[in-house]
Amino acid sequence: MPQIHHLPLADIDATALLRDRLALDAAALGTLQASILRDGLRQPIEVFAQPDTQPGTLPFALISGLRRLTAFQRLHAQNPADNPTTNPGRFATIPAFIRAPQDTAQALALMVAENEIRAPITPWEKGALLQHCLDARHFETLDAATETLFPDLTRQGHSRLRGFALVFAELEGVLTDPERLSARRMDRLAVALRAGLGELLHLTLADHRGAGPETQWRALEPVITEALLLPEAPPPEAPPNTPRKPGRPRRALHLRSGITLRREWTRNGWIIRINARHSEHPEIVDDILDLVERWFQGE
Questions:
Q1: 174-199 pLDDT, tens per residue?
Q2: What is the largest CA-CA distance in the chain?
Q3: Which has the closest alpha carbon to 22: 131, 99, 159?
Q4: Right CATH number for 1-103 from 1.20.1260.10, 3.40.50.2300, 3.90.1530.10, 1.20.1250.20?
Q5: Which of 133, 146, 164, 295 has the fewest CB atoms within 10 Å around its CB?
Q6: Which GO biological-process labels does this protein carry (predicted)?
Q7: H/E element holding 214?
Q8: Rounded-to-integer distance, Cα 199 and Cα 195, Å
């Protein structure tokens, strides 16, 4: 068994690596603190030694055990040392395994593997981690990131993770509590984005910014349904290799006047939603109905 070291909390950098967990559950953290206070730490954290390349670099970087380290930090704050030099306190140091990853990519893979065993992260957090790794240039491609960080998944599983990363990259900052999205809902959002419905998703969310997760999801469902029920292919009666008319299908129309029209698919047919201020365009609905009537029925 690897040697267990007792490292000072002040020597461990919890932010040296990108973290796969975006938020810590307060209730679970409180339960963990109570368990450590009662029984001690049952599983050491994992760290690696950092090269001393810049002033202020801490000796060790955290690989896995963010919740355990946070719990120790809080317990140490709640139980201050009598004398920091001679008696630093029960929680001033934490048991740790010192690993020696070959590079940052391997360190990230160790972190993910540990969390998948102990407390899997959410689909949104997985997408965030993959996208952040690409942004930080830890991997050249999304495929390389998914295969390195989640090596035990099937080809279908890797494809699903790429969808999670796409959803995070496209919808970060516009969804309420995205960590609560189930894998199924993340899959459905990925289908809509891959079908080219990103603009409609953003327009829909703009009308529900700050609303609760369920309210936002109910608003998004018609857009997602279009992606699921209407594959981007020529109609069945079209001859083989029929080219699609340029610019079709039209998802939304933005007019210089500030009016936006967007289509929405339902199981009973199409709906065209009109975003316009009533005070500025009080007759817009009647005008559109008049135009449609003349178009289909003639003068």
A1: 999 999 999 999 999 999 899 888 88
A2: 96
A3: 131
A4: 3.90.1530.10
A5: 295
A6: chromosome segregation
A7: helix 213-229
A8: 11
